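Minutes, project huddle
Topic: does the predicted pose make sense with dihydropyrimidine-2,4(1H,3H)-dione bound?
PN asked that the exact inputs be recorded in the minutes so nobody has to dig through chat later. Recorded below.
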Amino acid sequence: MTAFDLTIRGGTVATDQSVFRADIGIIGERIAAVEPALPAGLRDLDASGRLVLPGGIDTHCHVEQRSGMGMMGADDWYSASVSAAFGGTTMIVPFAAQHRGTSLRQAAHDYAALAAAKSVIDYSYHLIVSETDPTTLHEDLVELIRSGITSFKVYMTYDALKIDDAQLLDVFALATRERALVMVHAENNDVIRWVSQRLLERGHTAPKFHGTSHVALAEAEATHRVIRLSTLFDAPILIVHVSASDALATIEAARRIGTQVYGETCPHYLLLTADAMDQPGMEGAKYCCSPPLRDAAAQEALWRALKDGVLQVVSSDHAPYRFDRSGKLPYGDETTFKQMANGMPGLEARLPLLFSEGVVKGRLTLPEFVALSSTNHARMYGIHPRKGNLSAGADADIAIWNPDRQVTLTAHALHDRTGYTPYEGTRVTGWPDTVVSAGRVIVEHGVLDAAPGSGRFIPRTAPLPFTTSRQPSEQARFYRSLALGQQAGGGDFGAAYGNAI
Ligand code: DUC
Ligand code: ZN
Ligand code: ZN
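Predicted holo structure (tokens), as shared on screen:
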């Protein structure tokens, strides 16, 4: 019998497919066996009364990244990865951001060095593409995708980052050829700008007006537009941080007719409402994110969409801006809703909140929880079956989850450096007792045992939409070739579409 380095015995294993009694044997960094009864390894963890889950994967978080507005969050790769680990997340995928006038390749290079030096868990990163010049698109982006960074984000809003519709088309054509997934921040910039200007002119500067300016219509319109643009090439896209019912309905309708659109939401959209922005003084700034918090009806629609598969991933959108002049309040109490950093922290509480509000309250099954917090992320972004999976051969990234443990969330107890949590005082049921990352027990009894830089970069393969045998339509093939300067195709195809131009 093989000697295991580590065994996890007596627990109930939950995957995205099923829940069953099994022991797990680990050799080195990988799972070697999953069987009903295994002998103890060199080290043995008792998981009786516990759930044994694939470690969480958070594919939308902002770590050591300057925002479009020029602000830095409080967390670096060390504190963010430690915070993730304490909450049961064993892989993070934040963003290497290209700012206008700078090189995408350099941004990725610099970001990779920060991660390699500090992360305590495995990681990858997406790119943020804010320029579409030939060097960015046809040299740097191509090279980076081919090196295993198989997804990137584009913005339809934020003056410093947004790209226009023509640029979106360029991006979609290239991403489709290179088999990369485009993540889209979908909000109509002009609508937000128009409303904001008028609110400010009338002296409406308080945090709650952030919600008024980022009206749901702006999210719905941009979501509709970008989905339609993507269909020119049959390009798969993923709409990040979906918050509004109308945007959701648009995604659902598009998916029903076979459009390759996927979606993500975040715990704050499921659990908080716009009322949180309407508090005395500047307190509401803690709850300003984009898109903004909506209403109870939107929350219900989002839970339903998770259940029905309209949205596939729940990410934190961790954006750890401090409640001071470095982030939320650049002008102190005089800060307008337009000047404050957007976003809130959430890396560590993501799994506990989703478990507590989803599984414990009967909104999600355990396999649905595992899918939404881990396995779907791995599939979507090209890291399955290595990650998000508890089969032999997968990386041994595991959360030994205590489904009965009650924890009161406080900024003090969490491990990120933001200094506040939007969930202060919230009691959750379910928390990881022990966390294993690539075969190492990195969190146990509330103590971290992992050195900065011990996490590994994980190159990614083709995202989920590119793993099917789906063939693009003739129209999509024509426009792809038109975009990329190749032959438009021969015979009827060329005649049918080539004659039209
Ligand atoms: N919105 C973003 O687009 N990014 C960071 C956080 C946020 O609220
Ligand atoms: Zn965004
Ligand atoms: Zn974000």
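Observations noted during the meeting:
- The chain has 14 helices and 21 strands.
- The two ends are 69 Å apart (CA to CA).
No decisions taken; revisit at the next huddle.
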